Amino acid sequence: MELQQLRYVVAVAEERSFTRAAERCFVVQSALSHQIKALEREIGIQLFARTSRRVEPTPSGVVFVEAARQSLAAADRAIAEAAAATGDIRGTLSLGVIPTVTAVDVPSLLARYHKAHPEVRISLRTGGSEQFLADIHAGRLDAAFLGLPECTPPTEVATEELSRECLVAVLPASHRLARRPHVTLEEIAGERFVDFTSGTAGRAQSDLAFQAANLQRDVAFEAMTVDLILGLIRHGLAVALLSAHVVPDGDDLISVEVRDAPRRVEYLAWNDFNPSPATKAFLAFATSHHAEHSDGATTDSSVSSL
Known about the structure:
alpha/beta; 5-stranded mixed beta sheet; 4-stranded mixed beta sheet; 10 helices; about 40% helix; disordered C terminus
């Protein structure tokens, strides 16, 4: 059994096609098929059910593919560790990024990291903080930028706090409250809201604040992208509670201070149990990058512990 055979098996399982798997592995289909058949003969197990139009793993194949992924990851880790011993950082970095990161300029950070370690393959994922926490804990993600309510700090992962801020009310410029210097949750509770999907951390920070104030609100729209949320506000369909840093300058959207606003905390999180060389290097870069771009002031909108 060879590592290349395992790579072929994983490719076929993911592509559900010998042709596409061969293209992905930069090999002719006949050679890939021959290697998989040779592997099946060697281990005495049929890994794939095949017809002229369909390919899928057998029940035994499903188990084998998962073990093959783990073996390939272990082999890649061994190479990366050996290279790191000579100062050469390589391997992979899987990074989760929520849609509302404001404490760190992620593209700038990754550009610097890539320039220093061009052999590291970076895999970016967007999504919610809760899933990222689960994936870090399970080893499916190396690190992630999170945004959580102040009252629910992350657990079971290593973290650095990046910033802390109060959300603001984001209103269309024509809104009756748009010229007010500040509002309260009670004054906006009767508005129609757009917010992140129910059950997500981005949504929880506002839900918890309204619950604590014993207020109900109407969340008429749910979205998982800031652009869509801002677009709905811009057209007068709703209002929202967001970080002031994600609201663009202009005359069509107004940010208004909320006296009893929800408080949000951003974190960089990772699994500190034997992180890979690529992850360690990224954490060092993230710490340095944030320190350089932080003004060092302890304010309500940015309290850094890096």
